[in-house]
């Protein structure tokens, strides 16, 4: 038997991850898709499934927007930067929120997700910036899962009636849990 005593100087084979991974991406750049602002998607009997990059610096003339809804009138007439609403189906969305670069005072971005008879699964991805958000999730008959980046800044309000809400992270401060609203 001959033993080669020379050290092996060849590089190891390249490593390729095959796992898709769960939870929000740690990427600092959003996907290369069209930016949106003040977007309202409403569907009946059809799921909403997609990726959205919210850019609050995009201005849209009033005549192209949907009429204000009750909750928007109650919120000083501010529209949601992204509103996804479905009845009799589910919402499954990946969301990135860009900073409004020219703003001297950062007004929180509003994200609204609502389903009457289906699950709501939302993943807010980290861009390494601090665009403040207020997230509202309403779900009547279905489970609710909201995944947030570790450094998320903002309020999360979850309204649920006949469904479930995944456990809240110990890093979140719960301000209330009253009659199906957290």
From TrEMBL:
Organism (species): Exidia glandulosa HHB12029
InterPro entries documented for this protein: DUF7330
Region (Disordered) location: 1-29
Domain DUF7330 intervals: 37-182
The protein's name: DUF7330 domain-containing protein
Highest rank taxon of the organism: Eukaryota
Name of a matching Pfam family: DUF7330
